[in-house]
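#struct-queue
[09:14] JT: dropping the first one here, sequence first, then the structure tokens:
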Amino acid sequence: MNQYESLARHMKDADVQKQLAWLYGADEKQLVMQTERYISILKRHEQRYSAEAPVALISAPGRCEVGGNHTDHNRGRVLAASVNLDTLAAVSPRSDMTVRLASEGYRPITVSLDHLEKREDETGRTAALIRGVAFRMRELGYAIGGFDAEVTSTVASGSGLSSSAAFEVLISAIFDKLYNRFDMTGITRAKIGQFAENVYFGKPSGLLDQSACAYGGLVAVDFREDDPEVQPLSYDFAEKGYSLVVVSAGGSHANLTDDYAAIPKEMREVASLLGASYLREVDPLVFEASIGKLRGKTSDRAILRAIHFFDENDRVPRQVKALKNDDLKTFFEEIIASGRSSYMYLQNVYVDATQENLCLALALAERTLRDKGAWRVHGGGFAGTTLNFVPFDLLPRFVSVMEDAFGASCCHVLNIRPVGAYALEV
């Protein structure tokens, strides 16, 4: 019996099933699906590579932004959670510095790690993330090496659950598992991913996505300092009778990089005019008193976005307090207020009048969930997704309303995953 047959056979062992239930939820259908998924990726790895070196199974979760919309890049506060949708790899080490990676639905790629400097021709491509993670890990003193990976993901690109951050966390976890001790801290893993995305891939982002994917569970994160303060929270929305549902309302993220980049840029313009680098460094009362003087020196939209930052940054601690007090009414009020602030002040719900799909998704959610749940724009905004807290008894109707408007499979019903990057023990 080769290692692939042995690993596949042990996937149904009680201790392995317990790990899968921990990662994905204890629903029997979910466990059957995940068991088959893991066995399938092992088979694909065998067919493509037939490795003699040990094969590891490594998973990195997607993330859900609960509170703190576009605050992290100005050193603000966020509330986020890793979810039970993930990017999964079957991976084996190589004796050279070559990475061969085949991701389901995409062309296989090969990346040489012999030279790790940034390559302009890789900007915006998967190879840039691999090379960027490898560069930063080696710079921090970690060992790196080649590997053969078969990858699959339920964190679909454009789902608003941060497929890029999940992939970055996965790649650092692969290097960590194969060539180090697999004991990298969450903040280190998050910063490595952000570096790869910002510097090598060429996409400006804060640290929210990578932090949520790297830490796992529900966390409140304060980005005031270079090393963020992470506060794990324990709250079971399902136990209270609510599902977390992310709705993909359609629209493309293509050609929106400039729109995303304008948000931190404009916030920092306001901060700079008030003598600071980031809005978090500005006294909110000083900002309020300076609005008249700011007009004409920066755009009104920049001022509105700064208003959103200060309000949203204060909103996150109230959300955390409400959860600690088991006060869902107040929590939902704060979630709805967050969404309205994003809509009115941050202005990241649409780019122009031809792309108002998110507006419609929010309107339909409000009409369906009013006084019974909560809704808000999710993540980057513009094109993309909404986050909804839906009572169990309303879930079928909610899904039906959204699918009628945005198509089948637009709703992602989520569980909070308690751990970030994870190597299955088989």
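[09:21] JT: and here's the second one, same format:
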Amino acid sequence: MTKMTEKSVIVKKTLDTRTAAFFVQTASKFESKVKVSLEDKIVNAKSLMCIISLGISPDTEIKISADGADEKEAVNEVAGILE
């Protein structure tokens, strides 16, 4: 059993609808369960509505976590969209 992979990210880009859709598409191509945390909220990174509901803005710190066979690749690639 593997330990979940996590990464904290300071968001550099505005998460408009287009960027959010690309973020979700990227997370969805991985087998792992991918989550995004902002303060006390944790949502599914593969759900556009969940990502938009967080209201992520530039200079906000979020945590991206993944659990599964390709978790490291998932966290790094998804985080790269916002860095």
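[09:30] RK: nice, looked through the second one.
[09:31] RK: The mean pLDDT is 95.
[09:31] JT: good to know. Strands lie at 5-10, 33-38, 41-44, 61-67.
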